Amino acid sequence: MAEPLRKSGIPLVEEIPWGSHICLFYETKQDLLDAHAAYFSVGLESHEYCVWAISEPITETDARASFQQDIPDFDRHLAAGSIEFLPGREWYLKGEEFDMQRISGGWRKKLRHALDRGYEGLRVSGNAFWIATNHWQEFYEYEQELDRSLAGQPMLVLCSYSLQDSRAVDILDVARAHNFTLARRKGEWQFLETPELRQANEHIRNLNDALAIMTASFNGPDQLTERERAVLAQIVRGASSKEAARTLGISPRTVDFHRSNIMNKLGARNIADVVRAVLSRR
């Protein structure tokens, strides 16, 4: 059976499997607050233990005020101990020292705490204040290790990065270390593609038999439905959710729902994996 999906709170990837590692680039402080209110709201509704490691440009006071306004029954969830705010700099750079084992061990303790208290799993987020520090390479390696360690764990992780503070090379690096890379700009959501994914999509566009690929046999315990194959055909041709929706006569949200199911059934952690799965079955 396919693994149950979790609500993400993010319109472009509405449902995601446990173990998902999401990268969010934000433009303004309000974009950061709004995105996290949506992300944590569905986590609280789904009986997940929520943890936000907060750092500049916001404070815990900012976060609480935003959540009280935008998350239904936030004070009740807070009183029940279902959400926790951590000082991000102290969590990641205790004593100004970076210790990957300490940080990873801390998240494992939070997960055990959540499960021992009967929560479905752990939903966390941390803001990448370290871009402006001399610890960038260490944190990039940590992001890669975190991505590997999430496999099979009832845990979701959102890492947020400032677009204003990120160099182009930073964006490319962190995109490779996450399953999904998104941007929130002036209240609007956007998907960001890595160079590898764009190259794979370009290769697919050059295949005259792209639709024939969709009729090929997919090995594994789960078979794609006809609708999922139709959505998959649009994905590998490089269509956006809106473009696929117009072609198939369905809503963009329905396309995103099928996209999540396809990834789950094919055992893919991101869309680049989906494309590679299709190419390997040509």
Q: How much of the residues is beta strand, in percent?
A: 15-25%
Q: What is the CATH C-level name of the largest domain?
A: Alpha Beta
In CATH, the topology of the largest domain is named Rossmann fold
Shape: globular
The residue ranges in which pLDDT falls below 50 over 5 or more consecutive positions are: 204-215
Order of helices and strands: EEEHEHHEHHEHEHEEHHHHHH
Distance between the termini: 25 Å
Number of strands: 9
Q: So how many helices?
A: 13
Give the CATH superfamily of the largest domain: P-loop containing nucleotide triphosphate hydrolases
Question: What's the arrangement of strands in the largest beta sheet?
Answer: 5-4-6-7-3-8-9
Structural class: alpha/beta
Q: What's the mean pLDDT score? A: 82
Total individual domains: 2
Helix content estimate: 40-55%
Please state the oligomeric state of the protein chains shown: single chain
Instruction: Summarize the biggest pleated sheet.
Output: 7 strands, mixed
Architecture per CATH nomenclature, i.e. the level-2 architecture of the largest domain = 3-Layer(aba) Sandwich
Please give the radius of gyration in angstroms: 19 Å
Task: Please give a quick description of this structure.
With 282 residues, the protein is of the alpha/beta class. The protein has 13 helices and nine strands. Helices cover 49% and strands 17% of the residues.
